[in-house]
Each structure stands twice: as structure tokens, then as C-alpha cells.
Specification:
Distance between the termini: 29 Å
Largest sheet: 5 strands, mixed
Strand order of the largest sheet: 1-7-6-4-5
Order of helices and strands: EEHHEHEHEHEHEEEEHEHHHEE
Radius of gyration: 19 Å
Number of strands: 13
Oligomer: single chain
Number of helices: 10
Length: 338
């Protein structure tokens, strides 16, 4: 394997996309039967109409592996060609081994180095940037970057403020080294990332790990489920996503008017609308599938990217802006020239 110093700087391009959503659909009306809510209440506040729910015997790695297979098929890449697998997730199969190792086994990518990234809903863009570093320095040529979540395993079904938001799913991309001088499609031009641990309490799962193990004394309070301060999360999400988007475009030498399509993290229709308004972009240049899937955390952007790709929304030469926020507090944005 060549060392970074023995290789020139290389560009990275997305050469294949794929996604997988579980079959079971959980509608707003279904939720109204188990918690005090309604389709109107959920739709007006979030824009979500339904979400997908993985089967009891489906782990996050199962969702991730199927999305990976579809991305590899689209890219025309065999499992043996994959040299790096990064899974962005906050719902791993286990604390360890990494979910990426389970994916490696399931898809037969025996030549890959595998690990997970935990940056909540920003995780896919974090993982994309990590993979770019491996490729750009010459350590790897072909990588699989996956965002996958089984968030329904972390939902408190008695909390109507959070249980209506989340769903399960997975999306994946294959990225490959491209010579800087070539006009490779799917070129990742820039990525901006940020974190603020002072805001960690806004969005978290406080229990289940070393800080707060689950015990007979605390199990009834469900500390191993999602806790969120909605109002503050909204405010910081809009601010950080806007800043990251502007910074990523500036690094790429582009302006907002150059953007053909924004693919934002699918958390809340109001947040997406606020970002589009502040960027000065009309609704038709903003991709949303939130109504179908809800918030699937690290999976939202790769799933949306794949759906936009399959629907013909991405034309050669288009500038695509990807932007997300998540627990941590984390945020990230990437600019891609398709």
C-alpha cells in the first residue's frame, strides 16, 4: 500500500449511490393509536406523514449492507475492490465490533478497512470527509460510505414530541480516486464540519453507556431513549447549517446562485424551509423526502441523494449542496459537482 508521501493529491468522486428502506410503514394515524397525537398535529409541526420501521430481526448492519450492495451495483464495483468501509450511525448493532465490520462480512468486502463514525445526523458528511482524506492522500482508491440507522430502537413511544420524528433506513455511496485534472462526475469539491460540545444536552440518548448504565433502578425512566430540547435544537440547527453551507460554497469558489439542488438533513420541514429562505433558494431547488421517511439521522442525506439521483434530479455539471446538523452538537456541509 503506498504511503501518503508517495502519492500526489487526488480528487474524490461519488461514482454510485444506493439506499434501502424497510418495508413496514408507520403512519401518523398509526401513532395516534399509541400516543396522544394526530396526523394534523404531526404534519403541521414537522412535515412528516409516515416513516419506515425495521423488522425485529433486522439490525442496522442489515439495512447498511443492502444499501451498500445497491450502491456498488450502481457504481459497477465488486466487493473485492472496496478498500475502506465507514458506517455513520448512532444505532450500531453492538458497542463493538463496529457495524462496518458486520457490513464487511455481509457484503464480502474482505480487502476493506472498517470502522464507524458517530456524529449523529451529521455522521454521513463526517464519514464522507474522512473517506476523502484516505483517498486524497493516496492510502485508498475506493471507499464505501454508509449512513444507517435503526432509530426506532431508541424511541420512547410514550413521548409524543420525539416518537413522531424518527424512522429507520440506510443510504450509501461509493467514492473513488479521480485524477485532479480529469472531469470526473460526482466530484466532492469541499466539506465543512463543526462541533460544539457545550450544546451536547440538546439532543442525546443519556443512558445505556458508561455514563449511565441501565440498572433495575433507572430502567423505568427509559434513559436509553432519545431526549431532545426541540426549540433550542431548531435555533442552532438553522444557524449552523446556514454558516456551514456558506463556508463550503466559498471554499469551492461558488455562490448560492450556482447551486442546482440542496439536499438537507431531513429533520423538520420548518428547518428545511428556514435554510432555503436564508440561502435565497426557491422550494424547487430543495430536495425533501421527509414526508415519507421522517428523520433517519445519518441515513437521511445518502437516502435523499440516491432518490434524487434515481429520479433524474442530478444532471451532469450540477452543483449539489449537502448540509446537516446533529447531536453533539455537530454540523457539516459538502459541495459536490455532479
Amino acid at each position: 500500500m503506498p504511503t501518503p508521501s508517495s502519492q500526489p493529491f487526488c480528487a474524490s468522486s461519488i461514482i454510485g449511490t444506493g439506499s434501502y428502506m424497510p418495508e413496514k410503514v408507520l403512519t401518523n394515524d398509526d401513532l395516534s393509536k399509541i400516543v396522544d397525537t394526530s396526523d394534523e398535529w404531526i404534519t403541521t409541526r414537522t412535515g412528516i406523514k409516515e416513516r419506515r420501521m425495521a423488522a425485529a430481526d433486522q439490525a442496522t448492519s442489515d439495512l447498511a449492507a443492502e444499501a451498500a450492495r445497491r450502491a456498488m451495483a450502481a457504481a459497477g464495483v465488486s466487493p473485492e475492490e472496496i478498500q475502506l468501509i465507514i458506517v455513520a450511525t448512532v444505532t450500531p448493532d453492538m458497542f463493538f465490533p463496529s457495524t462496518a465490520c458486520f457490513v464487511q462480512k455481509k457484503i464480502g468486502a474482505n480487502n476493506a478497512v472498517c470502522f464507524d463514525v458517530a456524529a449523529a445526523c451529521s455522521g454521513f458528511l463526517y464519514a464522507l470527509q474522512v473517506a476523502r482524506h484516505f483517498i486524497n492522500t493516496g492510502n485508498r482508491t475506493t471507499a464505501l460510505v454508509i449512513g444507517a440507522e435503526k432509530l426506532t430502537s431508541l424511541v420512547n413511544w410514550k413521548d409524543r414530541n420525539t416518537c413522531v420524528l424518527f424512522g429507520d433506513g440506510a443510504g450509501a455511496v461509493v467514492i473513488r480516486r479521480a485524477d485532479e485534472s480529469t472531469d470526473a462526475p460526482g466530484r466532492v469539491l469541499s466539506t465543512v464540519m463543526g462541533s460544539d460540545g457545550n450544546l451536547a444536552d440538546l439532543l442525546k440518548v443519556p443512558g445505556g453507556a458508561s455514563f449511565c448504565p441501565i440498572t433495575p433502578e433507572n430502567v423505568e425512566s427509559r434513559p436509553n431513549t432519545i431526549h431532545m430540547e426541540g426549540r433550542e435544537t431548531f435555533k442552532h440547527a438553522v444557524t449552523r447549517m446556514l454558516e456551514a453551507s456558506q463556508q463550503a460554497l466559498e471554499i469551492a469558489g461558488l455562490k448560492t446562485e450556482d447551486v442546482a439542488l440542496v439536499i438537507p438533513h431531513q429533520a423538520n420541514a420548518r428547518i428545511i424551509g428556514a435554510i432555503a429562505e436564508r440561502l435565497g433558494l426557491p422550494p424547487e431547488r430543495v430536495f425533501m423526502n421527509l414526508d415519507k421517511y421522517g428523520n433517519t439521522s445519518a441515513a437521511t442525506i445518502p437516502v435523499a441523494l440516491d432518490e434524487a439521483n434515481k429520479a433524474g434530479r442530478l444532471k451532469k455539471g450540477d452543483v449539489i449542496l449537502l448540509v446537516a446538523f446533529g447531536g453533539g452538537f455537530t454540523w457539516a456541509s459538502s459541495v459536490v459537482r455532479w
